[in-house]
Design brief:
The structure is a single chain. This protein has 666 residues and is α+β, with helices and mostly antiparallel strands. It has a 6-stranded antiparallel sheet. It has a 6-stranded antiparallel sheet with strand order 4-5-6-7-11-12. It has a 5-stranded parallel sheet with strand order 15-14-13-16-17, with helices on both faces. Strand 11 (211-216) and strand 12 (221-225) form a beta hairpin. Helix 11 (359-371) packs across helix 20, helix 19 crosses helix 20 and helix 26 runs antiparallel to helix 27 (628-639). The chain is globular and about 70 Å long. The relative contact order is 0.12.
């Protein structure tokens, strides 16, 4: 994994400055401490930069930017292609000649020339963000992987197009104005992150997952979506309809186990040491157990816990797995002072706020792995979304079954009237917030489930966020083919609807859990969970690989009905059955704890006092977006123990810290 960047001068007369490319690369030195490189075209109109974290093919021949050997195309690439060896064989049979021993980068550039970008992307198995300059066509092509494991950002202004793995690289150009995007702020408060294509920086965008974009030498952009995590891509109903219940369970569990084994095996491809982040939960334990079967040495495992909040620790379970599978186990314990000392670096490396406090323990376990000599780790993200592993999912599903589905059949005017009355009730006391939010969504014909990560509900945003009438100018992106439905809506429910309305038209018979999972694959996974893994891991020069998000496993699980993922009240039913011969019942069937941090407690201590001062005194308060008095009350109520406002306060702290650092401070 690496850091990539580039500049395209679109007016034809300007030349890319070599020092500008170097600055972009240097800003991401943590992503690639093992090497750096730049390339500028002979006419000076296009320049590519690369920072290298050497993992596959450590030779100098694999350095980037790289050409096909005949200067027909140049590439800068971040990620890993797990099936590159098979693709190389196919390309060699087609007459392509390779200069490296086993570089996946060279496979990409030859694959592009041989098959075109669509043909290349359909063949790839891996995680990636890359840019290819086609010399003959004078066209720049950028692509982000199917799931969105790797980031890719871009901006176009003043006759210049920039792209990079991190926003901070784009901001090395002093001509780029820094300001907050009010519409991104609106949606951030709902989803804890800005939905693609927005970032929190006005005018800087992120390429959505499973998208490619092409930019002509003159700067004309076009976008295409090349994959969708929708059902109907793997399992043939004609095959499953003839199976008995026991045969069908065996079919599903065998399919899950086989695809997971293959995914883990592929992600062990490395020329440097690798290991596993181990929490002691099902997903990370499965990674350890299956890797142990495939390796001739102990697996390196890494676990983080809390010194003063042992009720949140899963160390007992992690140690059980480490002992059972004879791993080379490492632990680190952190406390509030460790967290406080890390906050400045957190804000810097996130680039835009990711209001997930899991970033804190994630940093310390990543640093532990790096300090232990490991460069690559496997992680468990993506399993809960596919197999219904979150308690919140069950809450929504039960509410759907017991109330929502029936209530939504009542007349719309009645629901609208009840929703409006509930909003009046909520204004009297926050005790009615949950009740109000549900009835309000029903009255507005919105989805009940927006996201598994939902910080501020609408009833909360109305109190903390002053009215926003500003929209983001996305006309050029829309004309270029990028779907921006819902982005400029004042109500963040429109974001979820923009995913599910087309989904429902194409798949009208799908169950609610599949709809929820699809929505999560469009927003929460690529822009929140996977960005925390990428940005925090790469800040310590650690590459994280995500076997549960192998696209072949995803295509299989999205074809499995909800009634098989939850059976007899047991969540993750099929995954647990698929692993019963591998993991002890104490791991498989224990209550889920989740990767967390004692943020509620920390916000009542030294950190709470610092956070209160930082948020209330932030220059962002002078912009008129936020209700300072209401936020001050939120802090007071939390610190006094009257309410648990930790999620809201951490979200606001991330927001104002980002603003102070990136908009005001730099």
């Amino acid at each position: 994994m690496c850091g990539i960047a580039g500049i395209l001068e679109t007016n034809g007369s300007k030349r890319v400055a070599p020092e500008a490319l170097v600055s972009m690369g240097n800003s991401m030195a943590h992503r690639g401490p093992d090497g750096e490189g730049t390339w500028i075209s002979p006419d000076g109109n296009i320049g590519l930069a690369h920072r290298r974290l050497a993992i596959v093919d450590l030779s100098d021949k694999a350095a980037q930017p790289m050409s096909d050997g005949h200067d027909k195309a140049w590439i800068t690439f971040n990620g890993e292609i797990y099936n590159h060896a098979l693709l190389r064989i196919e390309l060699e049979k087609a007459g392509r000649q390779f200069r490296t021993d086993h570089s996946d980068t060279e496979v990409l550039v030859h694959g592009y020339l041989e098959w075109g970008i669509e043909g290349l992307l359909q063949r790839l198995e891996g995680m990636y963000g890359f840019a290819i300059w086609d010399v003959e066509k004078r066209k720049l092509t950028l692509a982000r992987d199917r799931i969105g494991i790797k980031p890719l950002y871009f901006t176009k202004s003043g006759g210049r197009f920039h792209f990079a793995s991190e926003i901070k690289a784009i901001l090395t150009d002093p001509s780029i104005e820094r300001d907050i995007d009010p519409q991104a702020l609106n949606h951030f408060l709902s989803f804890m992150v800005a939905p693609a294509p927005l970032t929190m920086f006005k005018g800087i965008f992120k390429l959505p997952a499973a998208h490619l974009m092409e930019v002509s030498a003159e700067g004309t952009m076009s976008f295409r979506r090349y994959w969708d995590p929708a059902p109907g891509q793997d399992i043939d109903p004609a095959e499953t309809n003839r199976l008995s219940s026991s045969e069908l369970e065996s079919f599903y569990t065998r399919g899950i186990r086989t695809r997971l084994e293959q995914a883990i095996d592929k992600r062990m491809m490395s020329d440097v040491p690798f290991g596993v982040f181990l929490s002691g939960g099902i997903d990370s334990s499965a990674n350890v157990a299956l890797m142990s079967q495939m390796m001739d040495r102990p697996v390196d495992t890494f676990t983080v816990g809390f010194k003063d909040h042992k009720h949140l620790n899963e160390l007992e379970y992690a140690n059980r797995i480490a002992k059972d599978f004879k791993t080379n186990h490492h632990e680190v314990l952190i406390d509030e002072s460790d967290m406080i000392g890390y906050l400045d670096d957190l804000v810097h490396h996130q680039d835009e706020p990711i209001a997930d406090w899991v970033c804190i323990p994630l940093y310390f376990v990543s640093k532990l792995a790096k300090d232990s000599g490991v460069t690559v780790v496997q992680v468990g993200e993506g399993s809960d979304e596919q197999f219904c592993g979150y308690d919140s999912y069950m809450t929504y599903l039960n509410l759907h079954r017991k109330f929502w589905d029936g209530y939504m059949k009542s007349p719309s005017p009645l629901r609208k009237m009840v929703g409006g009355s509930a909003e009046v009730l909520s204004s009297l006391s926050p005790r009615f917030d949950k009740f109000t939010e549900v009835l309000s969504r029903a009255g507005k014909d919105q989805e009940l489930f927006w996201s598994g990560a939902n910080a501020f509900w609408n009833v909360h945003k109305q109190r903390v966020l002053h009215g926003n009438s500003t929209t983001t100018d996305l006309a050029e992106l829309e004309e270029a083919g990028l779907d921006i439905t819902g982005i400029n809506a004042s109500d963040s429910a429109a974001i979820t609807s923009s995913y599910l309305d087309p989904f429902d038209k194409a798949h009208p018979e799908q169950d609610q859990l599949t709809r929820m999972a699809y929505s999560e694959f469009r927003l929460r996974l690529p822009e929140l969970l996977l960005m925390r893994v990428d940005k925090i891991g790469m800040s310590t020069s650690i590459e994280a690989r995500v076997p549960f998000l192998d696209h072949k496993l995803v295509e299989f699980t999205m074809d499995i009905p909800m009634d098989w993922k939850i059976k007899g009240g047991e969540t993750k039913y099929l995954l647990k059955k698929a692993l019963e011969d591998l993991l002890p019942d104490k791991i498989l069937y224990r209550e889920k704890m989740g990767f967390a941090a004692p943020m509620a407690e920390w916000l009542r201590g030294e950190f709470g006092r610092r956070a209160e001062a930082a948020v209330l005194n932030s220059p962002l308060m002078e912009r008129g977006f936020l209700n300072r008095d209401h936020i001050a009350t939120k802090f007071r109520h939390h610190i006094e123990g009257r309410r648990d406002n930790a999620l809201h306060l951490w979200t606001l702290f991330n927001l104002t810290s980002w603003y102070d650092h990136w908009i005001v401070g730099e």
